[in-house]
Design goal:
The protein is α+β, with helices and mostly antiparallel strands. It is built from 6 helices and 13 strands.
């Protein structure tokens, strides 16, 4: 598995409220250069988390803490509860456990109560993978031939309206409709959040992409697809997207993971 990743707080945001999970290591930094590595192992868990800026009593610290704890507790839940795995892969129950522990650790403090984060993950084992997400951080898949598809599902007000046939994906709506409908939240009452789970079977040469909305909203999905080149190695591909976000203004935190079998 070849993998490359990067983080940056962007040009506008003062704080970094994104985080990455790479094979048990959690990264939160104002700027993390494009980093590449090769892992020769049968199993890998990676994730992107995007803290909700308007959440928690003290918004300077709450989203950042929510990110780290959600990622820590996800890893712990998978380690502690292998009986919850579905065909050996992460299940919804692991994310609900992570949210419950997030609430236990932060809800009792008024500075952090209500801290929230999105989460998108890929759990790869052999030639099988599970893709799970809560919120609007995304996972894409691309074949060696360049065929592209979104593997995650946004949990936004607009997507809920589209699902109910009350809005059209082909019409541009006001930005308020992009508000999150679901996220992991440090509130013991917020247990009924939506989780999207998909199973995929990556083939050799396939690419999996995880990113926060600081990438896919800044560039747009069509632009991301146009900039994808399966001939590039993963580090070069990450740099192409990161540079494109920078040229567009990098108005939000950005986080990106690209991996290829």
């Amino acid at each position: 598995m070849n993998i490359a990743y990067t983080l940056h707080r962007g040009k506008v945001c003062r704080q970094q409220q994104d985080g990455l999970l790479i094979d048990g290591a959690i990264y939160q930094a104002a700027a993390l250069p494009v980093t590449a590595l090769t892992l020769e192992k049968d199993e890998l868990l990676v994730a992107v988390a995007d803290g909700v800026a308007a959440s928690g009593g003290d918004r300077r610290i709450a989203p950042q803490q929510a990110i780290r704890i959600a990622l820590e507790e996800l890893v712990q839940a998978v380690r502690d509860h292998p009986e919850w795995l579905q065909e050996g892969l992460v299940a919804n129950r692991h994310l609900r456990r992570a949210q419950a522990r997030l609430a236990e650790r932060l809800a009792g403090n008024p500075r952090t109560c209500g801290a929230a984060t999105t989460l998108a993950l890929v759990h790869l084992k052999g030639r099988r993978a599970a893709v799970l997400n809560v919120g609007d951080s995304r996972v894409y898949g691309a074949s060696r031939a360049g065929q592209w598809r979104r593997l995650s599902k946004d949990h936004t007000v607009l997507q809920d309206l589209i699902d109910r046939d009350e809005a059209s994906p082909d019409i541009a709506y006001a930005s308020l409709y992009q508000a999150l409908a679901h996220a992991l939240c440090a509130d013991p009452e917020e247990t009924d959040f939506a989780i999207h789970r998909a199973r995929v079977a990556p083939a050799p040469g396939d690419t999996l992409i995880l990113c926060s909305d600081g990438v896919h909203d800044e560039l747009g999905e069509e632009r991301m697809r146009a900039l994808f080149d399966p001939a590039l190695d993963v580090a070069a591909q990450v740099k192409v997207w990161r540079d494109a976000v920078w040229r567009k203004g990098a108005h939000d935190n950005l986080s990106l993971i690209v991996m290829r079998l």
